[in-house]
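Lecture 7 notes: from sequence to structure.
We start with the chain below.
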Amino acid sequence: MAQTIKGWFFVLASSLLLYVLIKQGVDDLVDQLEENYQQSRKLEAVLRGIGDAVFVTDERKRILMVNEAMEKLSGFKEKELVGTVYSEKLCFVSEETGKKLFSAPRSVYVGSKEVKPKEPGVLIRKNGERVAIDGVGSPYKDSSGRVLGGVGVVRDVSKERDLDKMKSDFVSLASHQLRSPLTGIKWIVELLLESIEKMSKSEVANYVKKIEGSNQKLIDLVNDLLSVSRIESGKMKQAEKIVSLNLKELLLESIEEVRLLLKEKKSKIVGISVVDDKIVLRGDKTQLVQIFANLLNNAVKFSANKSEVRIKVNKDDSWVNITIEDSGVGIPKKEVGKLFGKFFRGTNVAKHISGSGLGLYVVKRLLETQGGKIRIESIERKGTKVYVGLPIMYNKK
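Predicted structure tokens for the same chain:
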């Protein structure tokens, strides 16, 4: 009996000790799981709150989560992405070739290495829009070093790409638009120095006119650049000298600004004679002359020699609408929406007609300071219509 009691006591003590050990182990495991859970929640909160777009995948490349920035960037909601292989809906392609980027990043899932695209990329959003992106893919591992999945961090770099393109366009502009007239002036001056004594007065006058034309191109370019500089620095937020202006006189002064080009191309501007000379508006005269002179210059420059540019004016109680119509080279339909961008030039004129690509950008911004608006309709090889609207202000001081 004593042996039996001792045996049961030993079993009971062993069981109690085993229970304590198991409970302690379970408690430790629960604490560890809780700690891991809290850590994962913190990590998820960080990933969801980070400014860059983030998506997390498992070892089979299936998406586990995406943050809000990724939803906004891709156009997909998280529930549309979770459980899918990321490359099925998150379409990253090369900006230059259109080939897929990150389609099989073995260095992440097999080589356990960080991977970055070797060329500029774009993300094709759910609605088909293309967004310039940069990013990096990295593996995440367990304590033993086994790869559990990957983390993709993507950033919208559209503004940076646009800025780089703008810088490139400006360098191209400076090298071409400045070099061409300067080279022409240099060549003519050298010719005059060498042969002026042998030339007739008419020949000398002809060469001087060419110098004047090249010089005017430089002045126009510098004026455009100065206007852009003032706009970008915020110094042209509103019209500066507001005065009452007669519209017909304003248009005549603008025509005078392009008189030399009209003479050179043997072209003319029609319609001004029938403009109502009682239409008065208020605005900054210098800016308005610059606006209309720029638009008329474009209309004449992009039309054939001996062409007509037509001005039409109509008004209602509060607005005057001016239309400038030409029968020139026009603009490709797909490019009309880009006309007011800095340094943009139509592909059908960029190579054989000089220009800065800044004129319409400046015109639109100047019109905004006057409370005006502008719209352009164009058909390639048939001509362009520019519609300018300005508020009329009668008897206002």
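Points to note: Residues 70 and 312 are 50 Å apart (CA to CA). The domain at 160-235 is CATH 1.10.287.130 (Helix Hairpins).
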